[in-house]
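[Automated response] Your request has been received and processed.

Submitted sequence:
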Amino acid sequence: MRILLGLLKAQGGSVTVNGVAIGDTDLESLYACITLVSQDSPVFDGTVRENLVPGVGTEEEQLHHAIRVAHLDTVLSRLELGLDTPVGERGLRMSAGERQRIGLARALAGLLRELQGRSVLLVAHRLQPVRASDTVCVMEDGAVVEAGPFATLVAAGGRFQRLWMEQTRA
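Generated structure:
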């Protein structure tokens, strides 16, 4: 990810965005193509809804789709005021995971239409979000050790299957 974001130079091989090598583009052009949702997503004092669509007119259908994709709906179902629940200063009334889901839903609400025909790189330790991916790559020590469709990797008996079984055990 650091290479993709232009923070580190590749030791070998190449990384391209829209056919242009990362090293041959300026950061402003690179960042125009990238949206990042980090583990520590910024959340400001306001309601969940205000954090998802601050000052932007987003259609309700698009907003609710982003909420479902980010699995924020499970969080909202536990909150008495749902989307109108205050999150507190810097989101302190929410857990780190809930703040991360808000950040992901916020990014998705703004990007859902724009994602058609585009590549999305999802880096996750929790495997549930990768189920809808076309291709899953499993990395260990900086190298891809498995790659393929989700269902294929779950059935293959390799590293991904073991990780999936560990995380989905009841």
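Summary generated for your ticket: Helices lie at 27-31, 48-52, 60-69, 73-78, 96-111, 150-155, 159-168. The two ends are 32 Å apart (CA to CA).
If you did not submit this request, please reply to this message.
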